[in-house]
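User: Fold this; tokens only.

Assistant: Input:
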Amino acid sequence: MKIDAAQYASIAFEMLTNNSFLQITDMQADYLDKPPLLFWISSVSMGLFGVCNFAYKIGTFLMLLLSLIAIYKISIRYYNQETAKNATLIFGTCQAFFQMTNDVRTDGLLTSSVIISIWFLVEYFFTNKIIYLFLGALFTAFAMMSKGPIGLIAVLMPIGLQLLYKKDWKHIFNFKWILFLLFIALLLFPMSYGLYVQFDLHPEKIINGKQNQSGLYFYYWLQSFGRITGESVWDNGLPWHFFIGSINWDFFPWIFVLYVGLFVKIRDLLNKKSEKLSEIITVSGFILLFFMLSLSKYKLPHYIFVTLPFASIICASYFDKFTSIHFKIWDKIYFAFGCLILVVLIIYPLLFFKEFNIIILFLIVIQLVLLYFRNKIKWHGMIKLLSYVIVLNLFLSFVFYPKLLTFQADSMAGKWLIKNNPTALVYLIDEKSHAFNFYTKNTKNQTISIDAVESVNQFSWFYINEEKLQMLEQKYRIEKKIKFSDYPITRLKLSFLLEHKRPKSLKYFYLIQLKKRT
């Protein structure tokens, strides 16, 4: 999906093509924004599997699978096997997990690296085996190479508070933490060296509209903390409570369980008469990270994903307190969710995309069976609650998002070219597109102005929008024309989803070949 995933896939492909892993470029221009871990993993994967969606996504997907093991292992240390199973199921079935494994960005690597690092540090506290300390440092470095210094904070803040809460002075005042930090610094050295050579040694470069940019300062301070202090120019004007709204979808269908579970956890923490909690890693990690991210002047929904493994364990520990009465209440709530999902499945082919789809029919039948026989199916309680959501995500994975992606014009144009004319020379008229580069497997597609068309070989292909096409039609005869519908699919509106209103929401792009009028 555009914009982020398409750009990152294109950068990873360009890294592989240029064989330049320390100095990163984006469409041949110096790139100074996200740390390189996603690009490194994806470019190596593309070298193994070829330039394709699978190669771009597989590294992050495997890391997220490992994060499920981490959640299980942390939970079983502090709770029991049932809680561990539930926590794993909750994180693996929330909408954020679905998004991280489909629309792959840096947040999937950050989220997985943070919780895996915490798992290894917890193992170190329980076993005193130094190998776990070094593994914790490895994944903390991965977290920092995914999204910046926030990765270090997201690991050490909840771990430190846990040690203080338990008054574990032996582990707090331990010289081995110096080894931990030194190993992280060693792992960060290649990235830091690349930033220094590419930017700090070249103050004359103009990056993001500014001269004299320090890559090290940008990475270790400005990109993360500058958004809180106001030094960074990134500010999308969203209010401090933005994430309180966005998390309702990100953590669906477990969001209401989280509200109650978080309340119970905080109540027990503040209640001096109750026994000490077995851990505060989860509640401190969730609340403090949520608060810090809310202070940022630039917010996007996926920034909050790093808090959700903590949220999953909070929910699971609340489920551990369930009585049969509690379960009946939540069963009714999830029955309502299931009915809502059934309504979506039914109206999709009636109002949104009016075409016969056997998968939709199959999912409607499955959902009807689950709802009708919900009291007769003898399933584990959690499986019963999440079965409706599995149906929803099967719909999103195999029907809804594949259909949406057909409205991403530059992706579809790139796929058409690689299938029908893979060696074609293509010029993008006043356009730049990471998705087009990725799907044509060409990082050097040229962008030209409409005035430069006359100087180009007449057998070339051009990628052009509708407005500029009308301008060319006055001087040229269109020999070939392939039309592609376009819509910003990450910003859905009802006017696009409703089929009878959709044509007014679309823009159109074309692949064309020209011949000058005589």
